[in-house]
Every structure is written in C-alpha cells, then in structure tokens.
C-alpha cells in the first residue's frame, strides 16, 4: 500500500470486510501519505446512539471512529441501500413471475452507485467537506414489494 500511496493526497476508502480492526493498520499507512480521506460508510450509522444497535451500523461506526482518531481530514458518506442490490432478484425474475425474499414491506430510498461516486469525487476534490457526514438517499421511498412491481 505504501508504494501505491506514493504522491497520493486524497483517498477513497471502502470497507467491505466484516470487522473494523484491520482498518487500523490500513489507516496507519494511509495517513503517512494522504491528508484527506473520504470513507464510504453507511446510512445505518446512528449519531443519536452511544452504541450502534445493529451490526452494519456498528462496523461502519467503528471505522469512522478510527478515521476520526487518525488525524486526517475526513468526510463520511452514509448512503442508504444501493439500487444495484435489486440485481440479486434477477435469476428469479428470469425464471418466472414470483420473487421470494424477506421483509417485503421494508421501505428504503435506493440510490444509484453512479450518484454515490459523483458525491465521492466532489468530496475528494473540492474543499468544504472536511468533518462532514453526508447522508445519501435516493429520490423515492419504496418498499421491496414496490421495487419488484416497478423496477424503474
Ligand atoms: N450495498 C448497499 O446497499 C450499501 C449501503 C450502504 C453502504 N454500503 C457500503 O458500500 C460498500 C460496498 O457495497 P457493495 O454492495 O458494493 O459490496 P459488494 O458487492 O460486497 O462489493 C464489495 C467489493 O469489495 C471488493 N472486496 C471485498 N473484499 C476485498 C478485499 N479483501 N480486498 C479488496 N477488495 C475486496 C469486492 O471485490 P470482488 O468483486 O473482486 O469480490 C467487491 O468489488 C459496503 O461494504 C458498505 O460499506 C453498501
């Protein structure tokens, strides 16, 4: 990583691992080189709780805390669910006209990954995002059943 970070001023960090602990050593290397970090966190993180209530919020909150302690200039992106997640239904849709899954009434504002990337690029390049936690949502609240019925 140290070689890859040579001359890099700003880093976009995604953390797809199940535990936050390895992020500490990653951040140790990153902060030797970069002064700015934009972290793809999660809308599951709740600032109103001392301890996060569920695992996704807990994982991302732990990485956020480690970044805050790193001394770098940080921006957290907290997206809600990605539209791309619905692609997991594709095999069922190809095979028939029934989609089986959990929590059909669960409602969310899906957003397109390109929109997440656009925000990330601005946060990396522009000034004025330091210390900000940007919650990213899509344009419309849809239950999972509504997403299946109206994929557009
Ligand atoms: N999906 C959502 O709705 C959602 C919502 C809020 C926040 N997020 C955040 O966005 C992140 C990405 O979400 P996603 O749905 O795109 O996840 P994903 O589909 O699981 O993609 C994870 C990506 O990370 C790569 N990866 C996994 N382990 C790696 C490793 N050890 N070293 C290098 N690359 C590794 C994978 O590479 P391969 O393809 O080669 O396996 C894959 O490209 C999540 O981790 C989460 O922090 C997601």
Characterization of this structure:
With 152 residues, the chain is an alpha/beta fold. It has one domain: Rossmann fold (3-Layer(aba) Sandwich), CATH 3.40.50.720. The chain is built from five helices and six strands. The chain has helices spanning 22-33, 55-70, 90-95, 113-125, 144-149; strands at 10-14, 36-40, 73-79, 107-108, 132-136, 142-143. It is elongated and about 55 Å long. It starts with 9 loop residues before the first strand and ends with a helix. The mean pLDDT is 96. The structure holds NADP nicotinamide-adenine-dinucleotide phosphate (NAP). NADP nicotinamide-adenine-dinucleotide phosphate binds next to loops.
Q: Summed up, what is this model?
A:
The protein has 152 residues and is an alpha/beta fold. Helix content is 35%, strand content 17%. The structure holds NADP nicotinamide-adenine-dinucleotide phosphate.
Task: Compile the SSE list and pairings.
Layout: E1 10-14, H1 22-33, E2 36-40, H2 55-70, E3 73-79, H3 90-95, E4 107-108, H4 113-125, E5 132-136, E6 142-143, H5 144-149
Parallel strand pairs: 1-2, 2-3, 3-5
Antiparallel strand pairs: 4-6
Helix pairs in contact: 1-2
The structure holds NADP nicotinamide-adenine-dinucleotide phosphate.
NADP nicotinamide-adenine-dinucleotide phosphate binds next to loops.
């Amino acid at each position: 990583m140290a070689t890859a970070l040579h001359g890099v001023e700003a880093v976009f960090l995604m953390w797809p691992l199940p535990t936050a602990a390895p992020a500490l050593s990653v951040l140790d290397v990153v902060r030797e080189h970069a002064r700015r970090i934009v972290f793809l966190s999660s809308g599951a993180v709740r600032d109103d709780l001392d301890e996060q209530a569920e695992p996704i919020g807990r994982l991302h909150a732990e990485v956020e805390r480690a970044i805050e302690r790193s001394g770098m200039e940080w921006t957290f992106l907290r997206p809600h669910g990605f539209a791309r997640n619905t692609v997991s239904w594709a095999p069922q849709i190809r095979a028939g006209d029934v989609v089986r899954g959990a929590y059909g009434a669960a409602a969310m504002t899906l957003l397109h990954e390109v929109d997440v990337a656009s925000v990330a690029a601005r946060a990396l390049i522009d000034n004025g995002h330091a210390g900000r936690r940007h919650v990213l949502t899509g344009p419309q609240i849809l239950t999972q059943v509504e997403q299946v019925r109206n994929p557009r």
